[in-house]
Amino acid sequence: MNLRQLRYVVATADHGTMTSAAQALYVAQPALSRAVRELERELGVELFARSGRGVVLTAVGEQVVRQARVALDAIDAIEGLSVSRANGRGSELRIASTSSLEPELTGRLIPRFARDQPAVRVRVIRCEGREQVAAAIRTGRADLALTDLPVPGDLAAHPFEQREVVLISPPALKVRDPVPLSALDGMRLVLPSRGSSRRAELDAMLERIGATPVVAVESDERGSWLGWVRSGMGSLLWYRNQIDDTEGLVVRSFMPPLTKLIGLVHAHRQLPPVARDFLAFAKEASRG
Questions:
Q1: I need a surface site. Which of 13, 58, 95, 214 has the fewest CB within 10 A?
Q2: pLDDT tens digits, the chain, 288 residues: what are they?
Q3: Does 198 lie in the same domain as 175?
Q4: For the range 133-139, what are the long-range contacts, defined as Cβ-Cβ under 8 Å and sequence gap of 24 or more?
């Protein structure tokens, strides 16, 4: 039995379905279901019974959830005792990030956090993809990580921002606005090099929507991408909030919208005070 299983059981009881509980916790639904089943096998009891499209607690499940709430409240209270922070003096914060999200950390979040916590040394651990990010958290190399959601169930997730993927194209490209996803099939695109984490993300997204574009340019020289689009070589898929200069280009949304949820994640264990400070700061920044 572990705290993650208890959190999942309580969330399922609160939301009535494992799908809704997984969405509320920003974890994959199969991971949540597996953890609940493992706890049932360990205890030798059935915690939930199916009811229509959802689940309801069994009699013993109600007792388990009641005690689980007590245990989780106690853990929160114990973690709350760690308030002697010395204002971050001598602290180091290690944050892992995928390479595509690193500019979010170094250009936006960390400078603002440093103004409030000038004595904290922030070290960014660059990772190629979500698997490496998860490994950095699990092995203790990083305290927090900025990555795409959802994440595996053994990690706690805090949503930070919903990002929109847009199409940046030369004016000569004739396409409906907003752009139907089917239009990406056969479209000439400027893409990152094969083998890069950003290319893997785009390939997975295109595969999900069933589109096979024509590769016009493959390069990791991000500073040249818009130049190739201006020259008419192809269009570009990128995040709306990361576009610097689109003069002379057309930026279009998709219908249905293409979005990605990113968040800060950490292991299910007590965070160092400086990591908790950063997490609270990031949540406030996302609301602003």
A1: 214
A2: 888 899 899 989 988 888 888 877 767 788 889 999 999 999 999 999 987 778 899 999 999 999 998 888 887 676 555 544 444 444 789 999 987 788 778 888 898 898 888 888 898 998 877 888 999 999 889 999 999 888 888 899 998 888 899 999 999 999 999 999 999 999 999 999 888 777 888 898 899 999 999 999 999 887 788 899 999 999 999 888 777 778 889 999 999 999 888 899 999 888 888 899 999 999 888 776
A3: yes
A4: 133/96, 133/97, 133/98, 133/265, 134/265, 136/96, 137/96, 137/265, 137/266, 137/267, 138/267
38, 67: one domain = yes
**Alpha-carbon separation of residue 20 from 46, 163, 183 (angstroms):** 20, 22, 32
Last residue of a domain, one of 57, 80, 103: 80
Q: Which residues contact 239 (CB under 8 A, 6 or more apart)?
A: 163, 164, 165, 166, 260
* Structure-block tokens of residue 6: 């208890």
State which residues form the domain around 26.
Answer: 3-80
User: In this structure, is the dihedral angle defined by the CA atoms of residues 169, 170, 171 and 176, taken in order, positive or negative?
Assistant: negative
Q: Number of structural domains, the chain? A: 3
User: Global pTM?
Assistant: 0.60
